[in-house]
Amino acid sequence: MRVVPSVLESVTVHAEGALCTRAFVLSPENGHLPGQVRVDGLPLALRTGSLRARVVEGPSGLLVRDLKPTFDVRLPPESELPAEQHSLEAAEAALAAVHSRLERVRSEITALRGLTPTWPALPKGHPPRDAPLAAMLSLTGFVDTELAQLQAQELDLERQHRDATHEVELRRRRVQELSSARSVDRARLFRAALLTLSGPVAANADARLVLEYAVAGARWVPTYDLRLPRTLEEGTLRMRAAVIQRTGEDWTGVRLAVSTASLERRAEVPELKSLRIGRSQPPPARSGWREPAPGLEELFAGYDALHVALPPQMLPKPQPPEYEEPLPEADDDGYDDEEQEKVFKETATFGGAPGGAPRASRPPPPPPMAAPKSSGAFLVGGARSPDRNRSVTGAIPAPAPAMPAPRGGGGMDRMRKKRIAAEESLEGAPMADLAMDEDEGGAGDLLRAAGLEPADGLFDYDSLTLASAASPAQRGRLRPRPALVSQARLSITSVNVQVEVVRLEAQALVFAESVNTVAPPTWTVPPRDSARHFDARFDAEAVTDVPSDGAWHTVPMLTVPLELTAEYVCVPSVEPRVFRTVRLNNASPHPLLAGPVDVTLGDEFLMTSPLPTLGPGETQRLGLGVEEALQVARNTRFDEATGGMFGNSTVLTHHVSVEVANHLSRPANIAISERIGAVPESQKDLKVEEVEVVPPWHKPTPLPGEEAVEGERVWRVSVPAGEKRSMKATWVVKLPASKMLNGGNRRT
């Protein structure tokens, strides 16, 4: 088997996760291409079910026949470890040395402080002895001198210990800031792929292949950069992508693309069934299904006889699994404890021999030992495990058969009885449970007798496993296995060192998924929330680098062609200031997703504004702040009078005048908004009449995403540089004298 180096060429970052493409070249040796190759160095967070490989260039007919995931363990030399790791190990060694010296000095100080003079007990009747003052003074002087020296050393070592502790913390932070692709472990675990080629392997030219795989631990959000001149007449909008990834490998010099699609969404072509007019016929059997062979129980007769004949001390001991890993909380089909107990009961219900005959030739197995109830691990071919970190193989004692009928019954009578038994057992049972249930006659026989089809999981032979011969109820039949356990077991056979593969793989997945908890940049919106009902893909214009450090990196994607129209907006009745706005018309075939846009006016950074989602051909208004060089003044006058032939109505006259001054060095197009009274349809006796408007105004059409304001009128005027423009409007509100406007008649 040849191990070939590969290069990461392109990466497509989806809403969650990424799709990576690696390329490698196979060169012929002695005129032949290798039949099997191995690609190492794949990230540990790789999803094994996403592996794809194909031949891009090579001899005609060369195909990838098989592709299997496996593991690769590397022991890197000292030279390949990062310098930060060497610094951390040196700092930890220095801290350990200082700590040991400090503990030794402290123990010596404790021992010196215990040096005190003592006197033996005097016998009765003897006079007291004279105190040895010279010896006591000598001992006290020795203790004081030694304690002074040791305490000075203790103070110095405590200072060194604090400095060494700070140095270790600093070096640990430096190591944590490293990219996850630069592992500091002495033994590194990677994923690998085994490719088997078929076809014309005899060739004189190189063959180029690509390997695709999906990884977890990558996200992206859109951001934008808008550069405008001072005149606001034209501009350039560039789309950027803020990318964060912690997949375990650095993306260096890759062609990056981002997509709003989800990697978890399945896109299978539906199976269209034909409609036939005529006599009813039974549906054809699905390809791939085969009933269990008759006489399956006799296949294990020798095995059962051996276990009965041998004494207990000579029975072969079951070998423990080579790798032990914790079982998942629920198996691949999502059963909980109650559903698993139902599966076990149904398995025991269908546990009779073909035709319902009891198993008289095999003695019943001993009952399993009582064990505490686990948290829901479904063990294939065995009872519940009292220890979730170990696999237990055992037999489930089958109760009395539910259909005690002779085996040699008639065919029609036998099918009728099976149908009745299946219907009774199907009451309240899920389809997936019965599809996995085995019996002497097979679950498919019972399901077909009841007019049902086997579950789709029984047709995925790659995810099925054969039960152990020690399990009488399931042996000789295939059952689905838990996905988390099977993915590691499938590729663990080639690892020859003792590595906690399942634990390291689970840690890598948790470490990769931690990017989902990192706060995104301000005003960014996840692409799945702003993409509406479409999916889009954006390709970067140049190759880029994104390290696997769990931090946000801004990557330039593409330049978006836009049609810009500058416009100044003012609502003097609410705010007597003029605001700069730009109308963005998306003239590109790409949708612009919601996100922050950094606006640069001339050579100065102006502000950051939120940009809403802008589809192809749509127009949105982007605010750019206040324009101080434009000034607006608004004056109002209100008159109230009595009208009508008999004075039975009130006439409310509103006068509004607006003056705009342009102190810019260029003309300015200004939209000035006013609001007049709006009469609801239920009030037939109210009238609003526009008497005089100079210059004329019009009713505005709101842009997509903007709400229409009832009674709004807009003046659109062009004010030359250094000049002023005046506008005035008069409207009259007529209402019965017995009524008054809500909130007062004065409306200006």
Structural write-up:
- This is DUF4139 domain-containing protein.
- Residues 211-736 form the DUF4139 domain.
- Residues 11-112 form the DUF4140 domain.
- The chain is α+β, with helices and mostly antiparallel strands and 748 residues long.
- It has four domains: 1-82 and 180-262 and 503-560, no CATH class; 83-116 and 142-176; 297-476, no CATH class; 562-736, no CATH class.
- Helices cover 20% and strands 30% of the residues.
- It has helices at 83-113, 133-176, 301-309, 337-349, 411-426, 431-436, 443-449, 483-491, 501-513, 527-530, and strands at 2-4, 7-13, 18-26, 36-42, 52-57, 63-74, 188-198, 207-215, 218-228, 236-245, 251-259, 464-466, 478-480, 537-539, 544-546, 553-560, 562-571, 575-586, 595-601, 604-611, 619-643, 649-662, 668-675, 687-694, 712-719, 724-736.
- The strands form five sheets. An eight-stranded mixed β-sheet has the order 24-26-22-21-18-17-23-25, with no helix packed on it. Strands 2, 3, 5, 8, 11, 14 and 15 form a seven-stranded mixed β-sheet that branches.
- Helix 1 runs antiparallel to helix 2 (133-176).
- The longest helix has 44 residues, at 133-176.
- 24% of the residues are buried.
Any key phrases for this structure?
DUF4140, 748 residues, DUF4139, alpha+beta, eight-stranded mixed beta sheet, 4 domains, single chain, seven-stranded mixed beta sheet
Secondary-structure content class: alpha+beta
Helix content: 10-25%
Count up the helices.
Answer: 10
Overall pLDDT score: 76
* Gross geometry: extended
Instruction: Enumerate the strands of the largest sheet in spatial order, edge to edge or round the barrel.
Output: 24-26-22-21-18-17-23-25
What is the number of independent domains? 4
What is the gyration radius calculated from CA atoms? 41 Å
What distance separates the N and C termini? 88 Å
Which sheet architecture does the biggest sheet show? 8 strands, mixed
Biased composition (Pro residues): 361-370
Protein name: DUF4139 domain-containing protein
Biased composition (Acidic residues): 322-340
Domain DUF4140: 11-112
